[in-house]
Automatic annotation (TrEMBL), chain A:
Belongs to the SIMIBI class G3E GTPase family. ArgK/MeaB subfamily. SMART domains: AAA. This is LAO/AO transporter ATPase. Signal peptide: none annotated. It comes from the Archaea. Keywords: Chaperone, GTP-binding, Hydrolase, Nucleotide-binding. Residues 61-322 form the AAA+ ATPase domain. Residues 280-290 have a biased composition (Acidic residues). It holds the Pfam family MeaB. GO terms for molecular function: GTP binding; GTPase activity.
TrEMBL record, chain B:
The keyword Metal-binding applies. It comes from Halorubrum tebenquichense DSM 14210. The keyword Metal-binding applies. InterPro entries: Acid_CoA_mut_C, Cobalamin-bd, Cobalamin-bd_sf. PANTHER family: METHYLMALONYL-COA MUTASE, LARGE SUBUNIT, METHYLMALONYL-COA MUTASE, MITOCHONDRIAL-RELATED. CDD domains: MM_CoA_mut_B12_BD (cd02071). Keywords: Cobalamin, Cobalt, Isomerase, Metal-binding. Belongs to the methylamine corrinoid protein family. Its cofactor is adenosylcob(III)alamin. One of its GO terms (molecular function) is isomerase activity. It comes from the Archaea. Residues 9-138 form the B12-binding domain. This is Cobalamin B12-binding domain protein. Gene3D superfamilies: Cobalamin-binding domain.
């Protein structure tokens, strides 16, 4: 990263010879190489970034499905059956299953593999367990990179499975094209808790263990909730379309929505805004936004799994045909870039703190009332900011 | 970006092979490994050697601990080790066997490439210490 080419997009990090060989082996279909690359991604082994960079151009071929839900909802069992069904129709499958790790020891028991009974011995199902390793915000980067490795390897479908318990997990599953939220029957409270954060990300809702009592009620509750969400969406859509049909009026929000249509949609405008924008661009004036479906499955017996796969396919087709896939991908890459930049700048700041005697010493000085937190932060970030401005100026001058 | 922190964790597969339904020991070991800060994948019961190889390769584990109480170790362990070699995974996987292994078989297993055999009553710390000291270095 020398200053002279700062405004350009820059070159990919350089691969070491050994890593280049590893990438070639992965692209040639070596399971060992694929497993090793994912390990490097997980461990953040020096050089892993160059590997992921090199893989990027080979990605884009896989349908990525995210599966989330509360513990015990049957995610692993369903993933097993999904993988088996995909295999039956000839697709190759990759699975990344995320399990929490102990914040105290860092240890973890990664138990999802036990449920993969339908696919043992089938090397065309590549199943990999990952632990959260307590990395702040880094988990979604690591899983997204692992998905890229499976995609570049040539998997037709990649399934990303995680407990829908917190923001970290939600971030993980958001990196998928299609998100399924699993709910167990008879858990009215469960549906209530889904409101916060998870309801918004579901493209498909699955009531698993649908042979249990209360399944119908849970389906009804979910449908009502999806409907309510749709109601809200339609309201916004109507406003948008209404304004759009007046074409050149470009009144307030809708005008910018139009300009966004060709470019990266403002991330804040969210899915519906982008969908509507792109639909406008394709002059499809009817409301073609995706309505989340509520499905029933019994993962144990495989009941409903075929219908679920059909729905996943339908959603993938919707994303492609509506043009929404471009907006989804832009949003995802934008988020990746932001996360990486934030992490790297944070790392620079951490180094600077070390150079100034370490965080403990700084904290002690604040405690002694010698200085205060704002002053310390200013002192640390100031030189970095100067540096950025300087190279920015130089770049502009050239 | 040299500043990024590496996060290396020891990954283990605790495996039950063959027709042997006794997994209390495997569970206890898995939990002890977890508490030692390892990432543990448990295979589940009644796995074929091929399944174990598949799991060990895909999960890219540093340590493969095979628990056998059925007496079939002379048949099953060689198959697992052969499979690992087939996938080029044997050299950097530490293979351990735990369970009921007669003394006269221990030497044969080690000859095959098993790093250590842990019999009944082995203190948990001893196994964990052994792993810490012998986990293969990887590039």
């Amino acid at each position: 990263m020398d200053g002279s080419d700062a405004p350009a997009l820059g070159d990919a990090p350089t691969l070491s010879a050994a890593d280049a060989a590893l990438v070639d082996e992965l692209l040639d279909g070596s399971h060992r190489a694929l497993a090793r690359v994912i390990t490097k991604i997980e461990n953040r082994t020096p050089g892993y970034r160059a590997i992921v960079s090199a893989l990027h151009e080979h990605t884009g071929g896989a349908d990525v499905v995210g599966i989330t839900g509360s513990p015990g909802a049957g995610k692993s069992t369903l993933v097993d059956k999904l993988a088996a069904d995909y295999r039956d129709r000839g697709d190759t499958v990759g699975v990344i299953a995320v399990d929490p790790s102990s914040p105290y020891t860092g240890g973890a028991v990664l138990g999802d593999r036990i449920r993969m009974g339908s696919n043992v011995g089938d090397m065309d199902v590549f199943f990999r367990s990952m632990s959260a390793r307590g990395q702040l915000g880094g988990l979604s980067t690591a899983t997204a990179d692992a998905v890229k490795a499976l995609d570049a390897f040539g998997k037709d479908v990649v399934i990303l499975e995680t407990v829908g318990a917190g923001q970290n997990e939600v971030d993980v599953v958001r990196t998928a094209d299609t998100v399924a939220v699993l709910v167990q029957p008879g858990s009215g409270d469960d549906v209530q808790t889904l409101k916060a954060g998870i309801l918004e990300i579901g493209d498909v809702f699955v009531v698993n263990k649908a042979d249990m009592d209360g399944a119908q009620r849970t389906v009804a509750e979910l449908e009502e909730m999806v409907h309510r969400r749709e109601g809200g969406t339609t309201g916004r859509d109507a406003g948008h379309h209404g304004a759009a049909s007046m074409a050149s009026t470009g009144a307030d929000g809708s005008g910018s929505g139009h300009r966004d249509a060709g470019h990266a949609g403002g991330s804040e405008s969210g899915e519906t805004g982008d969908a509507a924008g792109v639909a406008d661009a394709d002059d499809a004036d009817d409301d073609e936004s995706w309505t989340p479906e509520v499905l029933e499955t019994v993962a144990n017996t495989g009941e409903g799994v075929a219908a679920l796969i059909e729905t996943f396919d339908a959603h993938a087709a919707y994303l492609r045909e509506s043009g929404e896939i471009a907006a989804t991908e832009r949003r995802r890459y934008a988020e990746e870039i932001r996360t990486l930049v934030r992490a790297d700048v944070g790392a620079l700041a951490t180094d600077e703190i070390e150079r100034r005697g370490g965080i403990d010493r700084l904290a002690e000085r604040v405690r002694d009332r010698e200085t205060d937190p704002y002053a310390v932060a200013e002192a640390i970030v100031g030189p970095i900011a100067d540096c950025v401005e300087e190279t920015g100026d130089r770049a502009r001058d050239e | 970006m040299s500043a990024e922190q590496q996060e290396r964790a020891v990954r283990c597969l605790v495996a039950k092979v063959g027709l042997d339904g006794h997994d209390r020991g495997a569970h206890v070991i898995a939990r002890a490994f977890r508490d030692a800060g390892f990432e543990v994948v448990y295979s589940g019961l009644h796995r074929a050697p091929d399944d174990i190889v598949q799991a060990a390769v895909q999960e890219d584990v540093d340590v493969l601990g095979i628990s056998i109480l059925s007496g079939a170790h002379n048949t099953l362990v060689p198959k697992v080790i052969e499979g690992l070699k087939e996938y080029d995974a044997f050299d950097d996987t530490l293979v351990l066997v735990g369970g009921i292994i007669p003394d006269e078989d221990e030497a044969d297993l080690k000859e095959l490439g098993v790093a250590e055999v842990f019999g009944p009553g082995t203190p948990m710390e001893e196994t964990i210490e052994f792993i810490r000291n012998n986990v293969p270095e990887r590039a």
